[in-house]
Design goal:
This protein has about 750 residues and is an alpha/beta fold. About 55% of the residues lie in helices and about 20% in strands. The strands form 5 sheets. An 8-stranded mixed barrel has the order 16-17-19-20-21-22-23-24, surrounded by 4 helices. Strands 6-5-10-9-8-7 form a 6-stranded antiparallel sheet. The N and C termini lie far apart (about 125 Å).
């Protein structure tokens, strides 16, 4: 019964194997039960068994058991278990009467028909009950019940049939010489049947053990498969045998529901091969949507047979990444407008079309005015917001077919096909007007960052016939627009090229001037007016260009401030002068000019502290000169930086006092250590009553605030006498010494006379 139930749970070839095993074990057991019981029958007469018929009865028992088991397991057959059980019961009867035919006895055997029918009915009835019970649910309890009923069927048929047999002694009937004695047959039957049963149950035990191992291995493999991020599918042909959880989640169905499904119904274009290049396919999900996947196919051994194993990789994330990469390759990540690559490709295309059609084309280059200051003052978030606002404002005024691109930083370009000079000018004015109204949103308490830009325009074919030339000319026109006052547009003119190239060459050389050793510091003494004693020096920067000669400061300093090169130049000057001043015998002050760009740069106070620490110069000997224009850009920030510097002990002087804006409010806002009167006033005090009045006013203001005043540009004794009469404390100018190398002033830094200095 256990073997039969195991056959029920198996499939195909395994079912046939276990059916044969069950029939062999069951038929042999039935036959052994019958013959051992017959051997227990002693008629009191000489008896034996015919070998041929005995063997035939064994074959009948096995064959009828096999037929009954096969019928009982037929799917779709009504009452299959009952019919199969009846077949086995009748088979037991056939075996019994064949076995009785093999029974040789010295007499004659007569049969009672009623009892024979009763025996067959008992065998068929109990056999039907036995298989119906065994195959009901496969539980141990039902198997035991089925085994008991089968024993009842065998014994009921046997003993009823034996009762139906009446043996009448007949001396004339002799036992054949080939018949086997009962004792020998009993031993042979016991050994044979026991051996078969033992082997059958041993095979079953080994198989169940292997199945348990396979189940454990399968659970382990299923756990590993479910741990995989990729979907895994095992197929037998087109039929899905098993899937992991990742594949089930991808499809949107339970893993159990996918077992037995058609693979072709889920995957389209699955020409998966063993090549390194895994093909792509479309996975049809449960909701009808299609998911792009990559399919890798391998042949594996599964359940003892070759199966197809498919690794299914979800490509949605990769497809999104590829689309994003493709987008970023042609668009600006911050603003979303086309980038330089897209613009250049479109420009080349439009030039070819314009040449073929003989029509004009305009290129407009735009650059935001003072964008770096927005980043420095309000932070990069405000700068990013401003760039997005600029793109939105420009895009709003463009017509279909026109293109805006961000070339990098705060540089933009507009491509306008089929637009002449008048149309380009109108478009440029519309862009500038839109930008004046654009606002990047609230930043702190300023209410917003307003956009302003300059535009340069170049026209095809007048200004150039290729993309590179047009871009260069538009950029040149942009540069001229910024030079002429910003916030305006300018068309390219041929004469601009020379000026722009000259300016850019200076910018390039200026960046390398310090590294090449072309920069030098000269010193101009500052003296007390009453005693004539030197109290310090002002450090002044000079540029000795190898080709241009001496470049005036008023020529290269503004360029350095616009390009940001002033930061490196200013740091170099500060280090050089502090290092030099630290070596002087006399503790004279050293005054260093600080530009607005330096003052508003992040970390300026930290730089001053680091230079003082490195050079060893006492902070009180360093005087930083700040112009009023450096303050008005962002007064709170500038004053905060100056307070940090002053807290170190560094002196702060207001340079060029009177030439800027809101001088009195600035003096009130920050406690400066000195006021410097601009040389434009000093040089006219002995000839201009107006200038003299201004100087007297500044000196009176200084006395009222308790601030010493230094007059610049003193060149004559008359000017010096006037300043002395008005109680001005300090002065500098050609009268005391022209700016020059510090070696020319060693007598001042050492305190020794020039002759003694020379002798030393």
């Amino acid at each position: 019964m256990t073997l039969l139930d195991h056959a029920r749970l198996s499939a195909r070839r395994e079912r046939r194997l276990w059916l044969a095993t069950a029939a062999l074990a069951g038929g042999t057991g039935i036959w052994a039960t019958h013959f051992i019981a017959m051997l227990a029958f002693s008629p009191g007469l000489a008896s034996a068994y015919d070998i041929g018929l005995t063997g035939l009865s064994l074959l009948i028992g096995i064959g009828m058991a096999a037929a009954g088991f096969w019928i009982a397991l037929r799917p779709g057959l009504p009452g299959a278990a009952w019919l199969g059980g009846a077949q086995i019961g009748l088979g037991v009867g056939a075996m019994h009467f064949t076995g009785m035919a093999a029974f040789e006895v010295a007499g004659r055997v007569a049969w009672d028909p009623a009892l024979v029918l009763a025996a067959l009915a008992a065998g068929a009835g109990f056999g039907s009950l036995a298989l119906a019970a065994t195959l009901r649910d496969g539980s141990v309890r039902m198997k035991l019940a089925g085994a008991g009923l089968m024993v009842a069927a065998i014994c009921g048929l046997h003993f009823t049939a034996m009762t139906a047999a009446v043996i009448t002694p007949d001396p004339s009937v002799a036992v054949s010489g080939t018949a086997v004695p009962a004792e020998a047959l009993a031993i042979a039957i016991a050994l044979a049947s026991s051996t078969i049963l033992v082997l059958a149950f041993a095979g079953l035990w080994l198989h169940l053990r292997d199945e348990r191992r396979s189940a454990l291995e399968s659970d382990r493999m299923r756990g590993l498969a479910n741990a995989a991020a990729e979907g895994l599918v095992v197929c037998d042909g087109d039929r899905i045998v098993t899937v992991n959880d990742s594949f089930a989640d991808l499809v949107g169905r339970k893993a159990a529901a996918l077992t037995g499904a058609s693979l072709a119904g889920l995957l389209a274009e699955t020409e998966a091969t063993d090549s390194a290049e895994a093909p792509e396919a479309q996975l049809r999900c449960d909701d009808g949507s299609l998911v792009p996947v990559q399919v890798i196919r391998r042949v594996i051994d599964f359940a003892g047979r070759p199966h197809a194993a498919l690794a299914v990789r979800d490509l949605r994330a990769r497809k999104r990444a590829e689309a994003r990469i493709a987008y970023l390759a042609h668009h600006d990540a911050l603003t979303g407008v086309p980038n330089r690559t897209s613009f250049n490709a479109r420009l080349a295309q439009e030039i070819a079309l314009a040449q073929a059609a003989g029509r004009p084309l305009a290129v407009l280059c735009a650059d935001l005015d003072r964008f770096k200051e927005v980043n420095d003052l309000f932070g990069h978030a405000a700068g990013d917001a401003l760039l997005r606002a600029v793109c939105a404002a420009i895009t709003a005024v463009l017509s279909p077919g026109q293109m805006l691109a961000r070339l990098g930083g705060d540089e933009f370009a507009v491509l306008a096909p089929n637009l002449d000079a008048a149309g380009a000018e109108a478009l440029g004015e519309a862009i500038l007007a839109a930008l004046r109204q654009a606002e990047a949103g609230p930043v702190g308490t300023t209410g917003g960052v307003l956009a302003a830009a300059s535009l340069g325009i170049a026209l095809f074919p007048h200004d150039g016939e290729d993309a590179q030339t047009l871009m260069v000319q538009a950029d040149t026109a942009l540069y001229r627009a910024k030079q002429e006052g910003r916030g305006r547009l300018s068309f390219y003119e041929a004469r601009m090229g020379v000026q722009v190239r000259e300016r850019r060459q200076i910018e390039h050389d200026l960046r390398l001037a310090v590294e090449r050793g072309e920069m030098r510091v000269v010193y101009q003494p500052q003296n007390r007016i009453d005693t004539g004693e030197a109290v310090g020096f002002e450090a002044l920067l000079r540029w000795d260009h190898p080709l241009r000669g001496s470049v005036p400061p008023n020529h290269f300093i503004p360029i350095a401030e616009e390009t940001g090169t002033i930061l490196d130049l200013g740091e170099w000057v500060l280090r050089e002068t502090c290092r030099e001043a630290a070596s002087w015998d006399k503790p004279l002050r050293i005054a260093v000019n600080v530009s607005a760009v330096q003052l508003h740069a992040a970390g300026f106070a930290e730089l001053v502290h680091e230079v003082l620490f490195t050079t060893g110069l006492k902070p009180a000997r360093l005087e930083l000169e700040i112009t009023e224009t450096a303050l008005i850009r962002d007064l709170p920030r500038a004053l905060a930086t100056l307070r940090r510097v002053k807290a170190m002990g560094v002196r702060i002087a207001m340079d060029d006092f009177g030439t800027g804006y809101s001088s009195l409010s600035n003096l009130r806002a920050f406690p400066f250590d000195k006021i410097k009167i601009d040389s434009s006033f000093t040089r006219s005090v002995d000839t201009s009553e107006q200038a003299a009045t201004i100087v007297r006013t500044v000196l009176g203001l200084g006395r009222g605030l308790g601030l010493p005043v230094l007059a610049e540009g003193v060149e004559t004794t008359g000017e010096l006498a006037f300043l002395g009469e008005e109680a001005c404390q300090e002065a500098q100018g050609y009268l005391f010494g022209r700016p020059g190398p510090i070696d020319g002033f060693r007598h001042l830094t050492t305190g020794r006379p020039p002759a003694a200095e020379t002798a030393a």
